[in-house]
């Protein structure tokens, strides 16, 4: 029996790379997407053509009802969940706090924090040994911004990732006795299209000379760390963070 993994926001970027690697390592993959069905279907096709198993499921992680449906569909199409990667998240245009409105802050925290809480809640219902599950793994995709604060650019995004870090630590202790490990990765300076959402598609190029390794990272490099944390290779690791940021 293949283990089953659900990766939120996996039609592109880090999520897509993680879906492809998970399938290569033998997981059946639930590829969640928000709007781009074509991109999600393309990831599923690549997995299936390589002999793997995957399904695409639309859901908006900022909507509680969508989250419940996402997990129900994963149950129906693939079976009982073994791993969750909380990857979905949003970034809005670069600006200082003084220019941010409450609506923007609400969008950021619904998509980047509350959605992750609710996804983890649904995963625990399925994986916890207290609820008849076999245990499992949750990996949260945070950011180096949780440490730096991203002043003058993405203070709200950074704060949401800081909340995700605290959530990782607390939840890891809460469910450690139920067979569930909870860890996180903190990527930064990764070549994905999230930077375009912030208004600066070439942000990594602008900053790469300040990175000790003198280059940006790839989504595949982040995926490798995520899959290590998901797998039994990290069986004694919980409440931990891996930074993938070129030494920054």
UniProtKB/TrEMBL annotation:
It comes from Parapedobacter indicus. NCBIfam families: PRK06123.1 (NF004777). Belongs to the short-chain dehydrogenases/reductases (SDR) family. GO terms for molecular function: oxidoreductase activity, acting on CH-OH group of donors. This is NAD(P)-dependent dehydrogenase, short-chain alcohol dehydrogenase family. Keywords: Oxidoreductase.
């Amino acid at each position: 029996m293949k283990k089953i993994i659900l990766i939120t926001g996996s039609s592109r970027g880090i999520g897509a790379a993680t879906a492809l690697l998970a399938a290569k390592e033998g997981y059946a993959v639930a590829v969640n997407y928000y709007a781009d069905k074509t991109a999600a279907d393309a990831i599923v096709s690549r997995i299936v053509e390589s002999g793997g198993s995957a399904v695409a499921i639309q859901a908006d992680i900022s909507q509680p009802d969508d989250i419940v449906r996402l997990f129900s569909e994963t149950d129906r199409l693939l079976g009982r969940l073994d791993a969750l990667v909380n990857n979905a998240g949003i970034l809005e245009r670069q600006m200082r706090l003084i220019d941010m409105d409450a609506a923007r802050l609400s969008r950021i925290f619904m998509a980047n924090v509350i959605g992750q809480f609710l996804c983890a809640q649904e995963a625990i219902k399925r994986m916890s040994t207290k609820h008849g599950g076999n245990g499992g793994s949750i990996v949260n995709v945070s950011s180096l911004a949780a440490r730096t604060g991203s002043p003058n650019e993405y203070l709200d995004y950074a704060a949401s990732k800081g909340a995700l870090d605290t959530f990782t630590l607390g939840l890891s202790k809460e469910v450690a006795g139920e067979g569930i490990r909870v860890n996180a990765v903190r990527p930064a300076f990764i070549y994905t299209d999230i930077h375009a959402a912030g208004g600066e598609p070439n942000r990594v190029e602008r900053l790469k000379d300040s990175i000790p390794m003198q280059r940006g990272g790839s989504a595949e490099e982040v995926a490798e760390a995520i899959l290590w944390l998901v797998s039994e290779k990290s069986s004694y690791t919980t409440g931990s963070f891996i930074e993938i940021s070129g030494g920054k």
